[in-house]
Design goal:
two-stranded parallel ribbon, two-stranded parallel sheet, 4 strands, 42% helix, disordered N terminus
Length: 167
């Protein structure tokens, strides 16, 4: 989120709802937000504090257990890289990064390169990456159907786990 935008957790609600579907009542999350700001002034820190409180309230509504964080950084990718490297304590650290697929990435090369930087950092940190596309079109009611799982590489069973979580 750019600092000048009205925040109020609007951009977080869809991805947090998706996460709550994935976890099936289990798990622990570190939910983080990056505010882009050239300066780390008092105003930026105040906005970050407000956004952190909004994220906490959305987490409570969606019954997500965990921590909320909000980082002020010069760019989205730099802020996400901070979060990836600094989240957790010892062995108790997130093992999966859930991010939105960037919109307009074909026409805005900056978004595509920032997204690639985040994926590269996550993989270097030995974390799985879930890039979710089309969250706004996701149905809110229960959906019945078939999930085809194509297990192309050995990933420690992550694809099988993901299909089980979506059922």
């Amino acid at each position: 989120n750019h600092l000048s935008e009205q925040l109020k957790g609007i951009k977080h609600r869809d991805i947090l709802r998706f996460y709550s579907y994935l976890r099936k009542g289990n798990g622990f999350a570190v939910v983080a937000c990056v505010l882009e700001s050239d300066t780390r002034d008092e105003h930026a820190m105040h906005k970050a504090s407000i956004e952190k409180d909004v994220i906490k309230s959305i987490m409570k509504e969606e019954q997500i257990r965990g921590f909320a964080e909000c980082v002020v950084a010069p760019s989205w990718s730099e802020g996400v890289n901070y979060i990836i490297q600094l989240s957790g304590i010892g062995g108790l650290a997130p093992n999966t990064i859930l991010v939105n697929w960037p919109t307009k990435w074909k026409t805005q090369s900056r978004k595509a390169s920032e997204f690639l930087s985040v994926v590269t950092t996550a993989l270097a940190s030995e974390k799985s990456v879930l890039a979710v596309k089309g969250l706004t079109e996701m149905p809110l009611d229960k959906v019945v159907g078939t999930i085809d799982v194509w297990w192309m590489i050995h990933d420690g069973g992550f694809m099988i786990l993901l299909s089980w979580l979506l059922v």
